[in-house]
Amino acid sequence: MNYKNLLKSNAIWLVFILEVIVFAVASGGSFIRTGNIVNISRQVAYYGIASVGMTFVILIAGIDLSIGSIITLVNVVCAFLMVNSGMNMWVAILISLLMATLIGVLNGAMVASFGIPALIATFASQTIFEGVAYLISGGRPISGLPEGFALFGRWSVGIVPVCTIIMIICFAIGSFILNKSYFGRYFYAIGGNEEAAELSGIRVNRVKYLIYALSGLFAGIAGIVLLSRSNSAQSTVGKGMEFDVITCVVLGGVSVNGGVGRISGVIAGVLIIGCLTNGMILMDVSEYTQMVVKGLVLAIAVGIDCITKKRQAS
């Protein structure tokens, strides 16, 4: 057994274990109490779910900055349909998820069919749908959701929150797509060399449509979970959330250059960011200091990825 390769492939999990130990000692043990662990699992659920779709996007060397706005719009639209229009909860959820998927399709169209760089295309979507969410809600919270809607964000099975179970299912689906389906092989092929993938017969543009649609769908699911947890729709609830999602994915070893990454690494990235946020809150670290720390984590993760890519190329 090559222990050096084993250590290298699981380094992200060692970082996670070290982080838990540090925060456990620094907090006097309160960090690892059962109640706090359950709380962390709730906190990471929505951006853990969204990170599955972002993983697919970054695997093809793309980016999706619209995730936060999709989460916000799903919050507002789903709440509006249930509260203001009196629509059945399940119908409202299905319409909201369909809308999120169609926004992903729109992103895919801009990137694949019109050739707009993903950064610009998804930033435009972010701006547009952030404004749409505000116009629908009028900038006011929408509350008074049906009692049953609490299922997705506040109910538990034993001590395990339902939102955590949803996140685990989404990770399992993401892992299946990447490891067991031919679509997963297409994702890696396009990220590794788009031109070669095209020449090998892969319909690259269609795959891009699929990937951005999936990113929209998973962001929509995250939006439903977040709305259920907060029990009130806010027109700014998802603002900046794409930053946390991108950080989780890149920290988890998905290369910004495309073609490299695993869902297992993304899970570790999600847990690291979740524990980092929770630990800093327990230690009463200011919000702005938290932003500095997360920014440094993202910069370091991307820097390591770029250095690794250069070494492999030389």
Topology (SSEs and partners):
Layout: H1 3-9, H2 11-26, H3 34-59, H4 67-84, H5 89-113, H6 118-137, E1 156-157, E2 160-161, H7 162-180, H8 182-192, H9 194-199, H10 204-230, H11 241-251, H12 263-282, H13 287-313
Antiparallel strand pairs: 1-2
Helix pairs in contact: 2-12, 3-7, 3-10, 3-11, 3-12, 4-5, 4-6, 4-10, 5-6, 5-10, 7-8, 11-12, 11-13
Describe this structure in words.
The chain is an all-alpha fold and 314 residues long. It has one domain (37-301): ABC transporter involved in vitamin B12 uptake, BtuC (Orthogonal Bundle). The protein is built from 13 helices and 2 strands; from the N terminus they run H-H-H-H-H-H-E-E-H-H-H-H-H-H-H. It has a two-stranded antiparallel ribbon with strand order 1-2. A hairpin with a 2-residue loop joins strand 1 (156-157) and strand 2 (160-161). Helix 2 packs parallel to helix 12 (263-282).
SS element count, helices: 13
Percent range for β-strand residues: under 5%
| String of helices and strands | HHHHHHEEHHHHHHH
Low-pLDDT parts are: none
* Integer tally of domains: 1
What global shape is seen?
A: globular
